[in-house]
Write a structure and sequence with these properties.
With 188 residues, the chain is an alpha/beta fold. It has helices spanning 12-30, 44-60, 78-81, 112-124, 167-170; strands spanning 3-10, 36-41, 66-69, 100-108, 129-137, 149-153, 160-165, 174-180. It has a single domain (3-180), classed as Rossmann fold (3-Layer(aba) Sandwich).
Length: 188
Amino acid sequence: MNLREKAKILDAQGISRVLMRIAHEIVEKNRGSEDLVLVGIYHRGIDLANRLAKLIKEIEGFSPPVGKLDITLYRDDLSVVGPQPVVKTTHLDIPIDGRSVVLVDDVLYTGRTIRAALDEIMDFGRPKKIYLAVLVDRGSRELPIRPDFIGKNAPASLREVVEVRLKEVDGEDAVVIMEKLEKKEDKS
């Protein structure tokens, strides 16, 4: 798929700013950080969860544990993903029974990833509460899922892709809207 950058909606400073706001909102809504567990969804959700844990430590003096969730086998479209989907490892060694879990992802779109994450979380125990934190909410939901903490609302058309770039993975921090380019027909 050919894409071209249409607009940069967050730069490094903007991402830092919204993550700090989300960290404060999490602490406020949870009334502290003692029973909090952050769970990042592969891949960029994990990096965002680690950043949020550091920010919460700055605020509260306590860093909540961070788990890693791979929802590949919980997807409802596994047959569409391909015959050999790449499965990563879920690391959720933290007891979640009776605790507040914050699922962290980079972009919320249809809601299907979050539905799969909720299914998997429940296989690990019964949390007191599950919150959802996303860096970007692009809209166009297919399931009735709504985030509790949003860095940026960025409604995007079906011809657009919201691309989150993080320095841990991509070498830079940015959120850009990419536009899908039409394939030109060969008229020769």
